[in-house]
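Q: What would this chain look like folded?
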Amino acid sequence: MSALLADLITTGVPPLDAGAMAAADARQAQLTKPAGSMGRLESLGSRLAGMYAVCPPPIPEPAVVAVFAGDHGVHAQGVSPWPQEVTVQMVANVAAGGAVVNALARQVGARVCVVDVGVAGALLDLPAGVGHEVELVSDRVVDGTGDFTMGLALTRAQAEAAVAVGVRTAERLIDGGAQLLVTGDLGIGNTTASAALIAVFTGADPGGVTGPGAGSDAHMLAHKIAVIRAGLERHRVEPADPIGVLAAFGGAEHAALAGLMVAAAGRRVPVVLDGVIAGAAALVAAALCPGVTAYLIAGHRSTEPGATAALAALGLEPILDLGLRLGEGSGGVLAVPVVQAAARLLREVATFESAGVAEREES
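A: My prediction, written as structure tokens:
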């Protein structure tokens, strides 16, 4: 385990700054609008002030989407209609700028960094000059995980090493100027691993937190649930041992995402969560370091049932609800302008006094 992660787990991440949040709440009441008229943007703005420990908070830009890629041995159990080599192909697609997350990142002015932390196959060669808008990083810990119905998905050492990849990624991106991180993921079979993780951390029955993922039909979904139940029966892990839970069921990308969240919180940088994979990883991060949850923003509500269960356990309310279930970071990226708008309101809207506008008369 990295020294930084061990320190954060031991000492905890800094709490939200109460003074900055109180100042933000007071400022919200003085802005030229009826109190509460901007709804949840107001509470989000105050949370951002607490995260950054200053009021008004900085506008969270630039934003960077960290897309972690990994493969899952449980794919061998027939839990996905897609062949495993699609993971390698999609890493190349993101690196070349042709995926959904790339298009949406361009729309909101975010950068994309894709990290191979656990892909099973060799990465495809990219044409010369391709990928100039995307950072492609090879920081592989394992060539795909093991099949959790047959044994551990990861060793404890591999799980800790993958968490450390996320820590390093967060540190590097923040040192490079990122003020907002967005979670992204790639990996055929990752919704199966996510549902298993969510079942462990929430205590929910697998049938209630498992969805179709990338297009499973009713028969495959029933099989997927049975596979997860078999894994849970094999590995009697406890939520109090998050590294052990990761080792039993997780993907390298889940571990890396958890590390990213903890490290970002330690640096007072908010993280926008994408869908069910991010939700599962956030449960790991919260188990590793409970204070991390204060720095997490739920970008959207995925249609995967496990995503709703994870957000409920984390106490997070999603910004968007658009019926999305792609992954990659797509829903998280779409929420970036809303997060930035919450800070911009506090920074740029005039107060009644500065604008010379009469305040509401009290009856």
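The domain at 3-57+347-355 is CATH 1.10.1610.10 (5,6-Dimethylbenzimidazole Phosphoribosyltransferase; Chain: A; domain 1).
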